[in-house]
Design brief:
Blueprint lengths: L9 H24 L9 H12 L1 H11 L4 H25 L2
Helix pairs in contact: 1-2, 1-3, 1-4, 3-4
């Protein structure tokens, strides 16, 4: 019997989708306004922070639920989630936003 893919569960793909949305938000902001630092954080920064912090409960639930059940797939999905977070944070670090 073939095992079902863990990726089809929301706790696996929602954090990745949130990271992609945060990355798109940063790229859009840089495209529209440039990389100059602003005196006050705008709505874009707050939405970015909410997206990045909001995915942590999903990641924790995923790890709690799937690592004991299917460690091989669980670690692969967690690695994908970490790569997505790093990809979303990279422009912020690179452009010092």
């Amino acid at each position: 019997m073939e095992r079902a893919s863990v990726v089809k569960y929301p706790s696996a793909w929602i954090p990745v989708a949130m990271s992609v949305a945060a990355l798109a938000l940063v790229i859009g902001h840089v495209f529209l306004y440039g990389v100059a630092r602003e005196a006050d954080e705008g709505a874009t920064a707050h939405i970015f922070q909410l997206l990045m912090a909001g995915q942590m409960p999903f990641v924790a639930y995923f790890a709690w639920r799937w690592l004991p059940k299917d460690p091989a797939q669980g670690w692969r999905v967690l690695a994908l989630q970490v790569v997505a977070v790093v990809a979303a944070l990279a422009p912020v670090w690179c452009f010092n936003l």
